[in-house]
Amino acid sequence: MDEARIARRSLSPRLWLAGGWLVLALLAAVFAPLVAPQDPLAQDLMLERLPPFWLDGAEPGYWLGTDSLGRDLLSRLIFGGRIAFIVAFAAATSACLLGSTLGLIAGYLGGWADRMISRIVDVWMAFPPVLFAILLVAVLGTGLSSVIIAIAVIDWTRFCRVIRAEAMSQARMDYVESARIAGYGRIGIMLREVLPNVLPSVVALLSLEMGIAVIVEAILSFVNLSIATDDPTWGGIIAEGRLSIHQAWWVLVFPLVTLILTVLSFSQFGEGLKARFDPVLR
Amino acid sequence: MLLQRFLVRLLTMLVTLFGVAIVVFVVIRVAPGDPIAMMLPPGASDDDIARLRALYGLDKSIVQQFFIWLAGVLHGDFGASISLRQDVLGLVFNRLPATLELATVALLMAIAIGATAAILGARSRGTAVEAGIDIASGATLSIPDFLWGLVLILLFGVLIPVFDISGRVSPQLDLPFVTQFYLVESIFRLRLDLTWDLLKHMLMPAVALALPLAAIIAQLLKQSLKEVLDLDYVVLARVKGFSETQVILREALKNAALPTLTLVGVQFTFLIGGTVIVERLFSYEGLGNMAIDAVINRDLPLIQGIVLVFALLFVLINLAVDMTYALLNPRLRHG
Do A245 and B153 touch (CB under 8 A)? Predict the structure, then answer.
């Protein structure tokens, strides 16, 4: 048993690979002004559509080439990571707090609270999420906080459904019954007994949701409905790349690879954490 | 029993739709910016503004406004699009067939790819083939349709330009169609040249939509197949001398498909939701693409209409799945 546990701890390359990429991307985003080789907004038509460093015609200092306005692609990707990670953390945490609270209430208290919350979830599930997000941002006005609010308002149902089911099965367990006999109140049991037991699912979902938030932000900035300023975003770079795809493929390829790696890492990281926290596997 | 179940579901569906209507109404009315101001030319007199307010019922209380609006919606009156100056319902029904055709082709592809992978995986369970399918489906699942669309554009639009990556049909073609169901009509008219052109445009967006769902089908169906393959009746079929593939196709698939079917129904609504951005990506002239234009133009009546039609589609699919499940599941059929 112990050997198996040690083996699992040391042999989780996906957790390390995923975590490694996320830490790298996060550090680059946080220290963007120090790390980025160029000013991400500086345009220079003399330098337009420079290819990445291994191709003929590349300029030193512009490692991944430039876009059709001569802006350095690598610097734009690094600065775009700032928006991506801010949205990932803020939106996923908000969705998690909102959804988990409602899910915990619905699952543990049951009765009319459960019926009402479940009905709201049903209504929410009838909206196409991307369209809902675009609509909310259009209504709230573009900007970082609108994007975060829109994602949280749409995606809380993911947490709510899972946590509700978990809390329901936990509420039927013996230990909850013992706590009740021991004289704890309903809210006390919910916070002290049920919450810690649903936490592993919450953490795994949270990581998954961060990946989803990054994608939604990319989609919103792809249709030019994300932030109002001209700061670079991954979706915005992709939109430029889609337009100049036949002249400068790298403007689409590099942000795409960045996004895929980030989304894969968030989901693998979540899966890995879940496996590690899972009491059955542990 | 079945009828009762149907009526209960129908009632829940209506309650859900009523909730959707409230949410749409509230979201749209929260919108900053006066809708009247956007409709009038600059320099309109106060009288004109007041008249238009009264015309659209904006001088009444918000609850009254909701019920006036709801009554209109129930009569099929979704108002007129501000940017296109046409009846919203007409615009929506003009675009809906394109989206339905795309979503259906994507669904069929997802089932074909997913089921093939599942059968292959179950047949060679415990081997490297199964492990490969697990890894591939896991990775496919984590990457959403938006990114698949971009990958496909790069691969088959630029690297090996074999498929069209823009539009629904080649613009130079003369279209004899009377309905908006181009694909269906081209087949019925035996204009297979047009069918081919439509499919060539549809293939890339459909694959982008299909891949995540195909991965889910592959995982779940393989799991169910593996469970069924250990049951006595399947073992008996094997003893009778059927090959493993025959056993799966003739005996196991029938009983393993039910859990997958329910899931496919729910996931199909996610696929339809995905058409919004995928249509945009491939400039495919469907409802989703029009929705994004409507949002960019702040065309609130049109957005309302599109969101409501999508919501109606979602609950109808869920109802259909639930009823199919009840019909196919012997325990519910006879209970």
Answer: yes
Band the pLDDT of A282: cuts 50, 70, 90.
Answer: very low
B315/B309 Cα distance (integer angstroms): 10
Give residues with Cβ within 8 angstroms of B295, minimum separation 6.
A134, A135, A138, A223, A225, B303
The pTM for the full model equals: 0.88
* Residue A72 bridge partners (DSSP): A66
Give the nearest chain B residue to A217 (CA atoms). B146
Q: Residue B147 belongs to what H/E stretch? A: helix B145-152
Q: Which residues contact B291 (CB under 8 A, 6 or more apart)?
A: A131, A134, B276, B302, B303, B306, B307
Give me the long-range contacts of A117-125 (CB less than 8 A, separation at least 24): A117/A160, A117/A164, A118/A164, A119/B15, A119/B16, A119/B19, A120/B19, A121/A157, A121/A160, A121/A161, A122/B12, A122/B16, A122/B19, A123/B16, A123/B19, A123/B20, A123/B23, A124/A154, A124/A157, A125/A157, A125/B269, A125/B314
| DSSP per residue, A5-69 | HHHHHH--HHHHHHHHHHHHHHHHHHTHHHH-SS-TT---GGGTTPPPTTSTT--TT-TT-B-TT
Q: Are A170 and A110 in contact (CB under 8 A)?
A: no
CA angle A100, A104, A106 (to 5 degrees): 115
Of the pLDDT bands very low, low, confident and very high (cuts 50, 70, 90), residue A234 is: very high
Is B158 in the A-facing interface, judged by CB distances under 8 Å?
yes
Task: Encode pLDDT of A57-95 as tens digits.
Answer: 878 888 898 888 889 999 999 999 999 999 999 999 999
Q: Report H helices in B191-299.
A: 192-228, 232-239, 244-247, 253-281, 287-296
Range of weakest confidence among A12-16, A66-70, B180-184, B276-280: A12-16
- Compute the average pLDDT of residues B246-265: 82
Q: What tens digit of pLDDT does each residue of B170-203 get?
A: 888 888 888 889 898 989 888 888 999 999 999 9
Q: Which CATH number fits domain A2-277: 1.10.3720.10, 3.40.50.2300, 1.25.40.280, 3.20.20.70?
A: 1.10.3720.10
Structure tokens at B58: 């904006």
What are the residue boundaries of the structural domains of chain A, listed by start? 2-277
Chain B interface disruption, residue of A121, A139, A264, most B CBs within 10 A: A139
Candidates B83, B148, B276, partner chain A, best to mutate (most A CBs within 10 A): B276
Torsion sign over Cα A83, A86, A90, A96: positive
A99 token code pair: 């959804």
